[in-house]
Structure formats: structure tokens, C-alpha cells
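EI: anyone free to look at a 584-residue chain?
SC: sure, send it
EI:
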Amino acid sequence: MTLEHNLILKHITDLLVASIEKSFPEAQVSRSDIYGGITETPNLKMGHFAFACFPLAKALKQAPVQIANALKENMDQSEAVTEVLLQGPYINFKLSAKGFGDYLLAEVISGQFFEKELTQEKPRTMIEYSQPNTHKEMHVGHMRNLCLGNALVNIKKYCKQDVIPVTYPGDSGTHVAKCLWYLKFHNKEEIPTQGKGEWLGRIYSTANLKLEDELGTDKEDENRAQLTEILRQLHAEEGEFFDLWQETRKWSLELMEKTYDWAGVKFDRWFFESEMDQPSIDICKKYYDDGVFVKDDGAIGMDLKDDKLGFCILIKSDGTGLYATKDVALAIKKFEEFGVQNNIYIVDSRQAFHFKQVFKVLEKIGFEQAKDCYHLPYEMVELTSGAMSSRKGNIVALSELVNNMESMIVEKYLEKYRGDWSDEEIQSTAHKIANGAIKYGMVRMDNNRKIVFDMNEWLKLDGETGPYLQYVYARINSLLEKQGYNDKTAVNYSVLDSDAELALMLKMSFFNDVALKAHEQNKTNLITTYLYELGKQFNSFYAECPIGKAEEEVKAARLALSKSCAEIINTGLSLLGIQAPNRM
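SC: here you go
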């Protein structure tokens, strides 16, 4: 249940409830429905906040237009509301500048605005995201999953949710065998002392291409036999290939840790695919022995044809498991180990059928929490030249991308400050801008839309980008410093009565409501759209409302308004995992 965290909406709710009690004494109306039904008006001429009377029609047994007229007639006077307007079945409220100041700006500046309880519903939620494979190089395509998961964790924590972020790297399987195969039988390169993880990823691509080239040749059978032996040793956890796996796995994990450090991401638990190999086989064999699973053409699984999900294979005829096998066992382990109430999997949309099968298998084996497992799909990231593939080697390696972006930012935007800024600040700012560009670009699209990565577009300081919002924040910071803003200065908010000022405060007032909706709908693009609109709204205010040349009382109020906007932008960016530089 949403709590009445928005003081403006709470005040309007008070007015509406009091008017309903006067106008319709016998009526039973839910206060939470009133609060939840207050929205922003389409334009300022119609007021600031609107309440549609349609939901009251049944309870009050009158037409919505008649209800609106009656409520306006019996509305109490309020210092915070300057005008109550009728728009057919809508009753609209125009808030005073003082109302915005008392109910919004004062709270933002004190920090209380960002510490509120937004909802009573707080199920313990596990979010599994970032499932990169070891022995492959992390590339820009991996960043959508990583940025989306990290942002959702941040948003939910802001909404005071109990969140457990976990990752599930793929450290076993055929892709590993291919890499080890090439290292053992074909590699002529020296192992580098630095960047071993990146180098290993390139070896995988080379291995895959070589195996494809040798299909249909006299080498094919020999290659297959060698790969089979590698997989046998890995499964038995002994032999030279198992030893090589342990060593090379460390290189990949170090690269993952380096990426997560760059992204500012932390996980409460690392589950590994290898960790689930044998336990998942054991679980499935038990269900087969109990008659829950059946055999079909030598494979063990569950018949889901009645659910239009085909036959879910869990143990292949050669006795090995699949992804579904491990995901069934992993789901059980997650709930047992952490006692979670919700289990969200952030995995690309190509795996939708896989998760439908897994969740249905869990349900049919009597796992009660199957209903609490949820697949959050997203579409892929492509380059302007098309799709990426580690297997084919046509990727943009993340480490290379970050270095290129940071160098470009220094050269294009920050080199002119060298001498005035320390080298450390220049490098730190370049890092924040590159980081912000990637993260914002990866989370600003709806999950069901593809992303086309374009470094030049994502680094622009105009348009809907992370650097644009970082620049707005830095610009406000510079303004506050130049004009000597002091948060101890007494402020008369009632002077903030121009349309540009009121429009900016109106947009700011909905920040927590948008954050709550982003949490409830698992949609990061609600935050990015809001922040971009807020940034544009601030620029309109700044262009229309002079600050430096304004009289002192107006100047103090406009500086307080600017400070409040900066705090909301900074907090909003932090929900996306983005740091805002103090100057750019």
C-alpha cells in the first residue's frame, strides 16, 4: 500500500476528504483511493493538480460532473491552494508558491524528502542479474543487464525495500571446454602478465572460429573427442584440464571484479553454474525416482505439452544436465538460503520460453515459491553495424571502450581545464562522464526495445544523455557557488510565483512518486524520462528568471529552488548508479 509521502498530495487529499464528508455525509470513500487519484494537470492554465471524480460516481450515486461541482462548493479555504478549478468531471487545484515552498522545497533542502517511507509493501526480494560467462570477454552488450539490474537494486533500496543482489556467472560448459582446448593444443602466444581475462576472451573467439573452420575435415572427430575429455575432467573435478580451468577461471573472475568496481556494483552472493552442476543432477534424479519426471527418448524431464510448453529436458541421454536443470536447483537453493519472498531474474528476452518451462517445472514438483519467481526480460544491445557475438569476435570490449571514452572526454571537454584543475580531478571527471553516458544509455529505453550503442551520441551534452544531466547538475553547482548560496539564509518562498518557477516545482514534487512507480513496475526509463524533463524544465526557469541581478529576496528564493532541483537530479542519477561531477 502506498503511503501518503507526498505532503502536497496529502494536503489536497485532506481538502477532498473534508469536502466529501460535508457534501455526502453518508458516503464511504477510501482515503487511499483519493490520494492515489490525484495527478498532474495537462497544462498550468488548468491548475497544477487534478482529481477525477469518476471513481466516486458509484459510491456517491451521482454523475462525476455533479460530484465535482458539489466538492468545489464545499471546499475549505487553504493558504497553500490559491484556486480550485472545475474542468468537467475534474476538480483541479492551483498551489501557491508558499505551498510549494513549505511542502516541497523545505523538505528537499533538509534532506527529509529523500528519507521517506513510500510504501508498506516490503517483500524480501532477490534480484539475479549480470550472468557473464567466464572464459569470454565482457563487452558493451553485457552492460544493459548490469546497468538495469544495478539501477533496479538502487531504486528498490531507495523505496526502503529488502533487496538481495546476486550474480550467476557461467563458469562451466562447452564454451569453457573450447577455450581450454585451444590453450592446450593450439595456442602459440605467451600468456600476458596484465589483462589475462581480456586475453582469455579473445582466445575463446579464436577457438570457436577454428572449430567451425574444421567442421567436416579430418580434424572434426579428433576435436570432438578432445572436447569430450575436457568436459569429463571438469565434471570429475580432476586432471590437467580441471587444473587449467581453475587457473583460467580466476583470470575471468578478476576481470568481472574489475568491471563491477568500475560500475560501482556489489553482490551479496555469487552463485556459480559449476556450483549447481552435480546438485542439480541429484535433485532431478530424485524426482525421476519418485515418478515426478519421466523418460523420453533416453532423456529425463517433464512433459509440459498440456501447458503448451513442450517437453522440458532436465537430464540428457548422456547423463548431463542443461541450463534448465541448474535453474530448477538454483531456485530452490535461493529460497532456502535467503528466505526470499520474490525472485527476479534479469535475463534477455531470448530466454523467455526457458523460464516459462523452469517456473512450470517448479510449480509441478510442488515448489510453493514458483509463483514468486519472475523473469524480467529485456531486448539486446546492438552496434550501429549490427548485432554482437563473442563467438564470432565482433564485439566492443568493455575495457577498451571505457579507455576510448575517457580519452575522448578529456580531449574534447576537459583538456582546457588542465592547470586550473588537478590531473586527478580531470581523470575522475572523465571517469564519471563515461560511466554516466554508458549507464544512462543502457537504462533509458523501455526494456522491450533494442538499444543501439553509439558512443558519440551517448556523450553529447545536449539531448537525452547522462552527460547532459550531469552538466545541468554541474551548472547549478557553479551558479550556487558563484552567487554565494547559503542554506542558512531565510527564504520567502511566496515570491516564486512565475509560471517557470511553478512549473519547475510542480515537476520536482513528483520525484518520489516516479521512483515508487519505477520500483513497482521495474522500469528504469521512468526515472530517466523524468530526469530529462526536469533538466529541461530547470533550463527554461534559468533562461526566464534572472538570479544574479534579482533583488535579494527573490535571489535567495531562486537559489533555494535551484539547490533543491540539483539535489533531486543528483539523487535521481544516483538511483541509476551515476555520479554527478561538481563541475564540468
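EI: The chain has a mean pLDDT of 95.
SC: 👍
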